[in-house]
Amino acid sequence: MEPRMDLLTNELGAKLGKRFAGVGLAIQQTTLPRSTQELVMLRVSQINGCGFCVDFHTKEAAAGGETPVRLNLVAAWRETTVFTEAERAALALAEEGTRLADAFHGVSDETWERARKHYDEDQLAALVYLIAVVNAANRLGVIVRNQGGSYEPGMFDSYTKN
Fold first, then answer.
1. Would residue 152 be called left, alpha or beta, if left means φ above 0 and alpha means ψ between -120 and 50 degrees?
2. How many domains does the chain have?
3. Which residues form the Carboxymuconolactone decarboxylase-like domain (predicted)?
4. CA–CA dist 42, 44 (Å, integer)
5. Do 98 and 42 meet the contact criterion of CB atoms below 8 Å apart?
6. Is 4 among the domain residues?
7. Which of 12, 53, 93, 110 lies at a C-alpha separation of 20 to 30 Å from 116?
8. Strand ranges for 28-143 from DSSP E
């Protein structure tokens, strides 16, 4: 399967991409723990089947100090002992917020309350935006068939800072 287009080399795609990346940068600068952000982005990308994003978030998390065991177990987080209760709450929110079409209720009150027990209002806002943004990024990657495997940690640092 060949990529359909490179959004970063298209003038309009690059312009929109920089603004899109700006939201991600603002989320990174919140008090929501970076490790939680990476786990959530990885899990959402796994659910959506975005190979590029799974590659990206796995490698960025590893470069940030995340352990191989935790990265390998994100897809089965419910059946593991390696995630904190706060991380589990964030992963549950991420899954329900991603699988909106799979359930009639969207995000359950139980899942929301579990997240509220572990995160303050600003962290919850960051988490909600993070889930929405990574879902949108996954859709961009899947639509244009971005391929996983070639990402190098920090590859887009200059892109997001310009």
1. beta
2. 1
3. 18-96
4. 6
5. no
6. no
7. 53
8. none
